[in-house]
Amino acid sequence: MSCRNCGGEFSAERAELGYDYCTKPECVEACLEPLNVVAVSVNKAADQYVLREHLRLPKHITESSIDAGPGSLGLRFRKPTTPRRPRSTSDAIAELERELETQLAGEHDPARRRKLVNDHNAKLRRLNIRYRRIAQRRP
Length: 139
Fold this sequence. Notes:
- This protein is mainly alpha-helical.
- Among the domains are: 12-55, no CATH class; 89-137.
- The chain contains six helices and two strands; from the N terminus they run ααββαααα.
- The protein has a two-stranded antiparallel ribbon.
């Protein structure tokens, strides 16, 4: 078998493997066709690698699919958020009481009013606070 680049001989075993060039560095560099491999994201743990021609993708993408806007890296620019002040327990209680008062103002059915009060008390219990102590401290 003769090399397609330099014309020299190479082994029959190499020809059986599908090569038509010898192992000299200049021949390998001239004849080697690199594989066009694409990483396909499957999940967080691993990617799969596939030959590009198996995916039937266009050879060259004329425009980038990534937005080259002000955020760079294709990420949309997001305004920095202002840190919210954490609600104090007494503020949370006052807000729950306001909600209860507005709901009770429009309700005349005694059973429904009891349910609203019970729901309010359940919300207070979920806050995991000592309500009476805090209520006593409020002016």
